[in-house]
Amino acid sequence: MARRTRWLAGRHAAAAGTLDLTVTAPGRPPAALRVTHQGTGTVVSFPVETEPPSEPDPEQAAAAPAASGAARRSPAPRLTFRIRLDALVAARPTRDGAPRAIPPAHTESWLPELVLAGGGTDPIACDPWLAPLACPLPHGRELIVAATPAGDLVLHDRIPQPYLDRALWRPDGTLLVAGRLPDAAPHTTELVLKHGAHAAELAFPTTHDDGRFHCALPLGALPSLAGTVPLREGRWTLHLREQGAPGSPLDVPVRCAPTVLDGLPAARTVRGKPLVLDRHRHDEALITAGPALPAPDRGPYRRRMLREQHYALHRSRPLRDTVLYSSFGGRTYGDSPRAVHEELVRRDMDVEHLWAVRDAQTAVPKTARAVIVGSAEWHGALAHSRWVVTNTHLPRWFTRRGGQRIIQTWHGTPLKRIGADLTGTLCAGLAHLAPRPRVSRQWSVLLSPNAHSTPVLRAALGYSGRLLETGLPRTDAFFAADRDRIAAAVRERLGIEPGRRVVLYAPTPRDDLAYDAGHHRLHLPLDLELARQELADDHVLLVRSHPLVADRLPAHHAPFALDVSAHPDATELLLAADVLVTDYSSLAADFANTGRPMLFLTPDLPHYRDTLRGFTLDFEARVPGPLLTSTGELIDALGDLEAIAAAGAEAYADFRETFCHRDDGGAAGRVADLMER
């Protein structure tokens, strides 16, 4: 590979509106400096002025390769190029005929090259560890003199951005970071971690000191509605934004200063959870959270060995007096498995309680011990637990053994079609249809919430085994003596002021809005800014997505709109709500126990009904509340709840009679009786 001979030896902002670049260029002097826009190919040229040899700038001294022999005796000539910043601004590409203005979040890059006497070009080498130089541009932007990852000089036209120059891991998994703020940074900022694959973010307040920011990120033990949990698995980019800004504030990437690049990647493992501070796109700060799964249990080969050998080995051993609970595949500590667990603990049943947890993302009480989904311990628990209580499907390779009792509580009244009933819809595929009869043979008993659901569950799930119409154990909370205390505790924990009306918005996931089989996008037809303007004085909006939904509401919508999806038990949220807004969720059948108003925001009803899934009932005729198609209609309905309740009283009573007739506070007790026999 040819040795690089043309290096950046100095750069500084000269007179206002100009930038001087000094380059060492041995041999025949180049004809000009050509700066090319990366994306459109637009070219701007600048003349060359030769300077006498001199010592290189201290910042560049380490960048240029060491000379030897004659080179030491004959220093390479240095050339200076004066770049007019207004020429670059004028050469910005137009977009759709609009003026040459760049969206704030966008970066335009220009590549400087030397035009050789023969007509060819040669890039200018630049030390990748060189501290970037900023020159101000109009409209709050700046031109950055920096290096590409390959070590070539590049100019970036962008908004001012912060630089992280100190980072330290504490033993507990807290990452202490500090850095330089842009000159125009707002007075109060927060550091935002944004998930690379899903629309999820975490925000942490920063402190400022003499143009610098400081922040502590407790990534090994994050306080959340699900308890204290480590950072969720994934790649998280770091951004800075104004704290408490109205609307949708701009998230500015945090970049790594050269002083920290040598120390990257910087890793810390906390209770088996690997956390790594690193960079991507050359210098943008990145945090990677690995899986909570123990290292020996990771990887496709190990998963196969656990399934085919470890699980099989434990199946050959005697059953243990253990109850393994699984709620939404380990995503929550809640729903009907929680109600059954608490009933068994109340009865002091002499068993060990294990709770399946995915990626350590939900805390479990002291009455149970967490086992990580996918671990060797989890495989063993599936094999030797005498009881398994689950509200969703178990792995397809699981086989119920003699003496083992699998209690399938299911996860709600099937208002929308499921399983085999999806034939003829957009969801009709092998994932929904083919495995149902085989998987349902895993169960010892299936619980039905009501008479409407019993034939639906049998047919849709291909189940011919024992079915008990017990009601859903999760609805027992609506009849508990301490239900008002629970509701008040939820409101207090969420910081809801007394006197505010609590609106819980709980949309169902859309099968056609999915990242993959286990992660769905958030369907949010609400105009949150309009709702805030009209309702924020005396309402608070709680947004609770389904456990399969990976997206989260951005934190800047608080305090009016709060994402409560991490709360482990939706029933507690229903207790705290004054009004339920949903679309096609089974939570409507649960909430009917309260007698409180329900509103149905269903702008996509024709698509959902006729194409995507469809219903097990005449949805439009039977739901106990108005069908709304816009945020404006929802706002109007919230202002007229008394009239809506009066007009829909008969439909509400019919809905409650149909879907809540088995709800009496004793469902978990009936399941416990079954397990004690």
UniProtKB/TrEMBL annotation:
Keywords: Cell membrane, Membrane, Teichoic acid biosynthesis, Transferase. The keyword Coiled coil does not apply. One of its GO terms (biological process) is teichoic acid biosynthetic process. SUPFAM superfamilies: UDP-Glycosyltransferase/glycogen phosphorylase. InterPro entries: Glycerophosphate_synth, TagF_C, TagF_N, Teichoic_Acid_Biosynth. Pfam families: Glyphos_transf. Residues 47-75 are annotated as: Disordered. Coiled coil: none annotated. It is a peripheral membrane protein. GO terms for cellular component: plasma membrane. GO terms for molecular function: CDP-glycerol glycerophosphotransferase activity. PANTHER family: TEICHOIC ACID GLYCEROL-PHOSPHATE PRIMASE, TEICHOIC ACID GLYCEROL-PHOSPHATE TRANSFERASE. Belongs to the CDP-glycerol glycerophosphotransferase family. This is CDP-glycerol:poly(Glycerophosphate) glycerophosphotransferase.
